[in-house]
Write a structure and sequence with these properties.
- By secondary structure, the chain is α+β, with helices and mostly antiparallel strands.
- It has a single domain, classed as PF0523-like.
- The protein contains 7 helices and 4 strands; from the N terminus they run E-H-E-H-H-H-E-H-E-H-H.
């Protein structure tokens, strides 16, 4: 908390490495049902597209900020997160860039304990998200972001700048 221009406690966010035995369409339908619950936001990402925990956290913070300032593109925060994570304004491009392709391996985001508890029952595997330094560097480079000390700042900056294009 404190790094953002509004009060948002990121310590209560869940960002996990998960899988599910459900078919993709059924899994996504169940997540949509969770997202319809008041105060619950869940989203899943293709693990090959996520640079770091901060990548997902930044997508959520920017999505919340977009809704608060009424600059959101989508009608749902979890979709807005995809847009920011993919650094694009087009939903179809975002789904192609960071969306899941199967339920075998995913990065799960939940905005708090209630959302996480609802999503957890859908999971076959649930563990801490661990992205090695070498994986993070490779993913950053694929996004056109250097891997130096400023990589996190550049990633967050690129999310914001994607709205200006």
């Amino acid at each position: 908390m404190g790094a953002y221009p509004f009060d948002l406690d990121t310590s209560k966010l869940f960002i996990r490495s998960v899988s599910s035995r459900l078919e993709l369409d059924a899994f996504l339908a169940r997540l949509d049902a969770i997202n319809s619950c008041a105060g619950c936001t869940v989203q899943v990402f293709h693990p090959g597209s996520i640079v770091s925990r901060l990548h997902v956290e930044g997508a959520y913070v920017n999505a919340v900020a977009a809704f608060r300032t009424k600059t959101n593109i989508s009608k749902k925060i979890h979709v807005e997160m995809l847009l920011f994570a993919a650094m694009t304004r087009q939903i179809s491009k975002a789904v192609g860039a960071v969306g899941v392709r199967s339920t075998g391996s995913m990065v799960l985001f939940a905005n708090g304990g209630a959302a996480y508890s609802k999503a957890k029952v859908l999971l076959a595997r649930d563990s801490d998200l661990i992205i090695s330094r070498s994986e993070s560097i490779a993913k950053s480079r694929r996004l056109g972001i250097g891997a130096g000390q400023d990589a996190d700042a550049l990633l967050l900056q690129r999310m914001v700048v994607s709205r200006l294009d």
